[in-house]
Amino acid sequence: MTELELRAHKIEAVGAIENLMALHSYYHAADMNREELDNCWSQEREAEVIWSQNFGRWQGLRKKLYPMYAGDNKYTDAEWLKSKIIKAHPEMEEAIRDLDGRALAEMPVHVLASPVIEIAEDGMSAKGLWYTPGFALRHDYVKGTADVAWMWEKYGGDFVYENGEWRFLRLLICMDMSTGEPNSWTEPRPPMGPPPEEEEFDPDDPDGKRGKSPAMGGGVSVEKDEPGRFTDYKPTRIPTETPKLPEPFESLDKTWSY
Fold first, then answer.
1. Structure confidence at residue 204 (pLDDT)
2. What are phi and psi of 61, to 5 degrees?
3. Which residues of the chain fall short of a pLDDT of 50?
4. I need a surface site. Which of 23, 108, 156, 163 has the fewest CB within 10 A?
């Protein structure tokens, strides 16, 4: 690229990366995590792909992210949930029969704010930082109840330009606090929806294998590569600059990573 073409490419990159981050938010809110990994994440550098949260860090697109973030149990759980709803409320069958069942399991909404985006000097990679206040809502359509957790997080991301498109390479999610109604945010709550110690027998799930995906309150079963690097709010927690603010850099292999 000429110097002028590089400048134009870097200007266009900022908007493209903001759109990419917004796609993550919309896919995630609909529980369409597999589509997100297919369409938004690096396919050429899959061994370098990293997803990090307070409770763990996973590396490898095919090896770890697909089973952790978009595992098959999301689909089987979703169809099982849909069948239970229709059984309990036959009047809803027409409305949800053709609906992607994943949308019935969880609605994690992450609003994006205060973006800071830095494009590498060579124009082939970038870093971004966002605040992301939001909530995670789980409906129990059978019982007619809901469970919601409010959260305030930050996203730090590394991005790469491949085959004419910007893609995620790494995403660090730092949750500052999480609480449920009507509690104060200074009173952190345990993770949402822990399964009861003694579950009632479900004739539609005699082996007790359904409803265990993270979207339905189950734990993440994919082994983490490292512990998380950030902790939730505590009255004694010392503030840190995590994730770091992006800063000018030459190329991704010559700087720190999220």
1. 58
2. -60, -55
3. 192-198
4. 163
**Omega before 243 cis (within 30°)?**
yes
Each residue of 95-105: b (16+ CB within 10 Å) or e?
A: ebeeeebbebb
Output the pTM of the full model.
0.84
Give the start-to-end residue ranges of the domains of the chain: 3-254
Q: Which fold has domain 3-254?
A: Nuclear Transport Factor 2; Chain: A, (3.10.450)
Radius of gyration of the chain (CA): 20
Beta-bridge partner residues of 166: 161
179, two tokens: 């609480």
Instruction: Phi first, then psi: give them for residue 154, nearest 5 degrees.
Output: -130, 140
User: Which residues in 60-144 belong to E strands, given as ranges?
Assistant: 107-110, 113-119, 125-140
